[in-house]
Amino acid sequence: MTDQLNDQPAGRDGRPSRRLVLASQSPARLGLLRQAGFAPEVIVSGVDEDAVTAPTPAELALALAEAKASVVAARPEASGALVVGCDSVLDLDGEPLGKPADAAEATARWKAMRGRAGVLQTGHCVYDTTTGRYASGTASTVVRFGEPTDEEIAAYVATGEPLHVAGAFTLDGRSAPFVEGIEGDHGNVIGLSLPLLRRLLGKLDVGVTELWA
């Protein structure tokens, strides 16, 4: 489908012309949207991520995003809204790495990642509950990891942060010094690609500026 964009001003009262709902409890995604001028509501999907499977990490991230968006879009409280679902998976040697189950797994993962590169895949799905249409896609960013020592890894895992993020790392937290660089969208690694979001909204004939608060 060809991208379309219909940039219109917000309503006369200064509020967005459409409600935006984020189907995620991620504070990082919420923060990215707010910094970009949106004022999303949050409705957590409750999707069992372990029950969703796909052949590749990229397809898994997309399937999870679509599942989250569709579940929230079906709820009465989301009526009339644009629902955004996202999910991130780190592709390391073709293996999908989500949130580690415990400290031991987070530690083992960091020891496997250091000095190497992986691809952070983030699935995005925007569901228009007014029309029943949706648009989805995946953004990919290469992440080059540094070589933290065993002591640094242990200290990082002890903070508890890696247990709550896909791939056991984040660019906007304590693991930032352990990431040497990225190739691609910075926001995508944090949890949401704003350029991809704009393109998906365009496919639904919604201009991004319509949703600015």
From TrEMBL:
Location within or outside the cell: Cytoplasm
Active-site residue numbers: 87 (proton acceptor)
Top-level class of the enzyme under EC nomenclature: hydrolase
Cleavable signal peptide: none
Cross-referenced NCBIfam families: maf (TIGR00172)
Function summary: Nucleoside triphosphate pyrophosphatase. May have a dual role in cell division arrest and in preventing the incorporation of modified nucleotides into cellular nucleic acids.
Name of the protein: Nucleoside triphosphate pyrophosphatase
Protein species of origin: Streptomyces chilikensis
